[in-house]
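Team,

Forwarding the record for the chain on the shared tracking sheet. I've put the sequence and predicted structure together so nobody has to dig through attachments.
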Amino acid sequence: MLLAAVTFIPLIVVLSYLEKGTALSFGITAVVLAALGTAFYIPTKKYRGVKFSKGDSALVVFLMWIFAVFLCVPPFMADGGLDFSQAVFESTSAWTTTGFTVINAESTPNSLLFYRSFIQYVGGIGIVLILLFILPPSSSTSLYNAELHTDKILPNIKKTIKSILIIYISYLVIGSIALWISGMSFFDAVNHTMAALATGGFSTKNNSIGYYNNPAIEGVLIVLMIAGSINFALQFLLFTGKFRRFLSTSEFKFLPLLILISFPLLAYGGLLSVYGDAGYASRVAIFELVSAFSTTGFTMTSYSNWPAFAIYIIIALMIIGGHTGSTAGGVKHVRIVIALKSFYWQITKHFKPERQVENYYINTYSGKYYLTDKNISWNNTFILLYLFVVFLGALIISAFGYDLRSSLFESASLLGNVGISIGIITPSVHPFILWLGSVMMLLGRLEFLVAFIGLNQIYKDISYRIRFMLMKKKEREENSSSEKISSKLKIKLPSNIIR
């Protein structure tokens, strides 16, 4: 029913631009989804008090994303002229806020462009967060945690989500007005604001932000991209005047440090030789590096003439990503902070007395968070798993004839939900790469764990069902055998003996 609303809203754009050709696909899709939602809701509404286990919650979240991707495919095929593989890729890119596209934006109906951007906006805040307004309180906490949102702004989950939505919608209004004033059309302003806040990167122009060549637009988008990449719990501190706590958090401290290190390296070590002008090189560098680490994917230039050094900086930033509890992808700043600190702790431990007790912690929204060896081990394991999948994806892509550097760039962009392409992802790319990309984007959005737990729950459920059926079959065979024996002996055995 939520997906029906997401599909119905673009009809407003259809009416505004008199795009009668797209009205049918959106209308039919919305009606079918609403009917399916109602058909599922009526017989199951009596189960609203059911509590979800960890595995159940992960499975629900995992299936929600799968259903969202596939059920929103029809308009992309009907109005975008895409085949099924391309449409699934486009839908996955939209829902996971990645921004890769196989559509020619400037020849696509406005209603479909809005549909993509609106899906990104909803996907950025998370399907589960919105559905928690509908779902019973008993399942709220487990589903909230299943999407890897660990910071509770307020004690009540639904009040937490309400606060996040208020911040998110406020940014949409302010950002749209700011971009409109800066020189975009109102339609473009709304679309780019939704994409920037969702750190998605879908543009209404084929050349993305480079089409406008407007420093004011670039400045507004930089602010919006950073806003989308900052933990919403930290933003709540900012809006409630708790500036000291906001500034003391480990994630926020890492953000300016990342910019201060990467900016001069990219601008003067990588791009000055390309553009020849320090001012323009700095302008390109700051926009591209913010787009990369926020995992938004807007670009104002082509990477075709960039040196390898600059390309690898962008790859590193895409892998690092943004904050936890934000719309950004990537490894996330807090994991990088923990990895760097654990490296420092391990080195310095050898220079301290053996009996000295150390308390390892990071500063979070709720204060000091003390880390155990288990926390640190899982954190570093996640980073290694993430890097392994990036390199595995790059090797698979390179098997189709692309060089390893370009394949690594595209793989990091896919798994990090960034959407910046170096030229591999095009409408003519092999369908296998599109399906591989769809899987990687979904894994990146769910950060592996939800997908793994959800798939494990499917395996457990199927295994249990098979064992149950085999047990019942065995019981029937034993009962049948007992009855045959009793009939041959012409003795009527009591039912409990037969059992």
